[in-house]
């Protein structure tokens, strides 16, 4: 499978966000082949190095990682990577192929088959499988119910983690969210957040986004939490944020403040929220 960091749109235009903080001359990101090299020479030179920042955001489902990560990426002028969307995209494709997603052998053997691309504009992230936009399709209950089993397969993880590292390495600065970013994907990230919320609050939030009741959402959430547990450990140097009683802006502000404190982040050129 090829996984690549995509452009902000089919036109290949740089996002306002990326250019605001990282320089308008930042070279466009073309799909980065696994093992691909950053663009050289870098027209931004030392400044780009100075402002290159990786923010790792981990935590269980329903804690608000995606909204908070996107908001923080916009505020900081960084790219955004939703690693969960990659596991979901593979799961979507496997279901389309009629593969039994509980058959770890079959899933592992096919892990590298589809071409998965992700867009890293925090204002409009997308994911494609073999050229088809599956940004909405990967959010169905069918995919949500099946994805944990797929994400546990070692060959799947090895493959997608390699691609995620490649995307992160080639981004001028990025907020990457998932389960294992701070521990495995980007253990050297200078800013690590572990975003939690109590189980009932998480289920309520998810239920509000779906047609499921809070009760059945919580049952499914508990099942997924158990399945995801092995790859969901909090990094020792991560800052835990309990979002149970925080609103989205408060979570975003906390992440942005951490980024400024822990890394040499220039003040955002524009506040976008
Ligand atoms: O955050 P999410 O619900 O979109 O994640 C989908 C699945 O992928 C979920 O089962 C957790 C798993 N996942 C993972 O194992 N590692 C990641 N870095 C991101 C997600």
Detailed description of the structure:
With 273 residues, the chain is an alpha/beta fold. The protein has a single domain (19-26, 50-259), classed as P-loop containing nucleotide triphosphate hydrolases (Rossmann fold, 3-Layer(aba) Sandwich), CATH 3.40.50. Helix content is 44%, strand content 14%. It contains eleven helices and nine strands. The protein has helices at 16-22, 45-51, 65-76, 83-96, 104-110, 141-151, 154-170, 181-185, 199-209, 214-228, 248-262; strands spanning 3-6, 54-58, 79-82, 116-119, 127-129, 132-133, 174-178, 191-196, 239-242. It has a five-stranded parallel sheet with strand order 3-7-2-8-9, with helices on both faces. It has a four-stranded mixed sheet with strand order 1-4-5-6, with helices on one face. A hairpin with a 7-residue loop joins strand 4 (116-119) and strand 5 (127-129). Helix 3 crosses helix 11 (248-262), helix 4 crosses helix 6 (141-151) and helix 6 packs parallel to helix 10 (214-228). The longest helix is centred in the middle third of the chain and has 17 residues, at 154-170. The chain is globular and about 50 Å long. The N and C termini lie far apart (36 Å). It binds 2'-deoxycytidine-5'-monophosphate. 2'-deoxycytidine-5'-monophosphate (DC) is lined by residues 61, 83-84, 87-88, 147-148, 151, 178-180, 224, 228, 231.
């Amino acid at each position: 499978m090829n996984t690549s960091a995509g452009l902000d749109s089919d036109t290949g235009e740089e996002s306002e966000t990326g250019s605001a903080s990282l320089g308008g001359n930042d070279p466009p990101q073309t799909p980065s082949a696994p093992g691909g090299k950053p663009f050289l020479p870098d027209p931004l030179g030392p400044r780009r190095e100075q402002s290159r920042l990786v923010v790792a955001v981990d935590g269980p489902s329903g804690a608000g990682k995606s909204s908070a990560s996107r908001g923080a990426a916009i505020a900081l002028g960084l790219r955004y990577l939703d690693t969960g969307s990659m596991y979901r995209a593979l799961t979507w494709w496997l279901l389309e192929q009629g593969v039994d997603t509980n058959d770890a052998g079959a899933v592992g053997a096919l892990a590298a088959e589809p071409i998965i691309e992700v867009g890293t504009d925090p204002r409009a992230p997308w994911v494609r499988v073999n050229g088809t936009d599956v940004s909405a399709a990967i959010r169905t209950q069918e995919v949500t119910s099946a994805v944990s089993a797929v994400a546990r397969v070692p060959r799947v993880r090895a493959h997608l983690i390699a691609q995620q590292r490649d995307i992160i390495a080639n981004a001028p600065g990025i907020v990457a969210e998932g389960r294992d970013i701070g521990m495995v994907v980007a253990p050297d990230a200078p800013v690590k957040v572990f975003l939690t919320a109590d189980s009932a609050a998480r289920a309520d939030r998810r239920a509000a986004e779906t047609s499921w009741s809070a009760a059945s959402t919580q049952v499914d959430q508990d099942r997924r939490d158990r399945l995801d547990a092995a790859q969901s450990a909090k990094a020792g140097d991560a800052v835990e944020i309990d979002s149970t009683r925080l609103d989205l802006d408060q979570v975003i502000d906390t992440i942005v403040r951490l980024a400024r404190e822990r890394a040499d982040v220039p003040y955002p050129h524009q506040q976008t929220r």
